[in-house]
């Protein structure tokens, strides 16, 4: 009887240890089902150096907006009746995709308006800047300006399925989406040490996240910015391997004891 009790206790310890180990790999453990959690911030991507921007200007009279749009190897001329015509000279199919490159000083060269300082602005702020210039300088009365990122990218390093640099369409990507694109975390990942490294001008900042907590949603780095680096710190490999070996040893011992107990019970009947 005593042996049976000891065997039951050993089995319970192993089961509870296994459950505790699996719990360490559960994401967002403190979130309740159907509970509503407010979104406390409005996200807007910031323009940085080396970004490529697509800027399209339209108006009620499309011909008047032509000089303000990047158009490859096109030249414009004013006809006798006052209309604007354009001549294409070997326009490449990918010319428009190159967009406006933000230089090392944070500027772009925009048709007619000249040099614009765009670093640190959001897409909405740059849109308003261009519209205001076009109206104040009496170039267009009713401009409609659209600004988009052409090379929004980020990198994921460390203990993930596959590391690399990823590009996305648009400018909205979350930390969880970035990890999913990188093949998710591995069993050797530290869930409480997921870092986002971000550039601010000539400086960099790092912020660590715990993916087991809902607090990740309120992080100022939850929405990634252009050129962010996500780094997933590995666990102590040696300690993990030792724990796995111990678990394997106890499993073998339990299996052996179970087999012997079964044989004893069968022979004593």
Note the topology.
Layout: H1 2-23, E1 52-58, H2 62-65, E2 74-78, E3 84-88, H3 95-98, E4 100-101, E5 107-110, E6 114-117, H4 123-136, E7 144-149, E8 152-158, E9 164-168, H5 175-181, E10 189-200, E11 203-209, E12 229-234, H6 237-268
Parallel strand pairs: 8-12
Antiparallel strand pairs: 1-4, 1-7, 2-3, 5-6, 8-9, 10-11, 10-12
Helix pairs in contact: 1-6
Concise overview:
The protein has helices spanning 2-23, 62-65, 95-98, 123-136, 175-181, 237-268, and strands at 52-58, 74-78, 84-88, 100-101, 107-110, 114-117, 144-149, 152-158, 164-168, 189-200, 203-209, 229-234. It has 269 residues and is α+β, with helices and mostly antiparallel strands. It folds into 3 domains: 2-22 and 237-268; 31-41 and 151-234, Outer membrane lipoprotein wza domain like (Outer membrane lipoprotein wza fold like, Roll); 52-149, wza like fold.
């Amino acid at each position: 009887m005593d042996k049976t009790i000891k065997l039951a206790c050993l089995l319970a310890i192993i089961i509870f240890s296994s459950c505790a180990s699996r719990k360490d790999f559960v994401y967002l453990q403190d979130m309740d089902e159907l509970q509503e959690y407010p979104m406390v911030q409005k996200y807007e991507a910031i323009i940085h150096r080396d970004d490529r921007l697509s800027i399209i200007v339209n108006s009620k009279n499309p011909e008047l907006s032509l000089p303000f749009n990047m158009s490859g190897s096109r030249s414009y001329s004013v006809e006798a009746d006052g209309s604007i015509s354009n001549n294409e000279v070997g326009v490449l199919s990918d010319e428009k995709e190159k967009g406006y490159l933000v230089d090392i000083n944070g500027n772009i060269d925009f048709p007619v308006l000249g040099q614009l300082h765009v670093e640190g602005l959001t897409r909405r702020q740059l849109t308003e800047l261009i519209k205001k210039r076009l109206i104040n300088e009496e170039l267009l009365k009713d401009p409609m300006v659209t600004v988009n990122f052409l090379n929004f990218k980020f990198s994921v390093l460390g203990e993930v399925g596959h590391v690399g640099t990823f590009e996305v369409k648009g400018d909205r990507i979350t930390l969880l989406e970035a990890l999913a694109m990188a093949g998710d975390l591995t069993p050797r990942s530290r869930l409480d040490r997921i870092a986002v490294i971000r550039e601010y001008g000539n400086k960099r900042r790092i912020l660590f996240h715990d993916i087991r907590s809902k607090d990740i949603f309120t992080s100022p780095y939850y929405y990634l910015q252009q050129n962010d680096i996500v780094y997933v710190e590995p666990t102590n490999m040696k300690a993990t391997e030792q724990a796995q070996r111990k678990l394997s040893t106890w499993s073998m011992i339990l299996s052996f004891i179970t087999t012997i107990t079964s044989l004893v019970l069968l022979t004593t009947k």
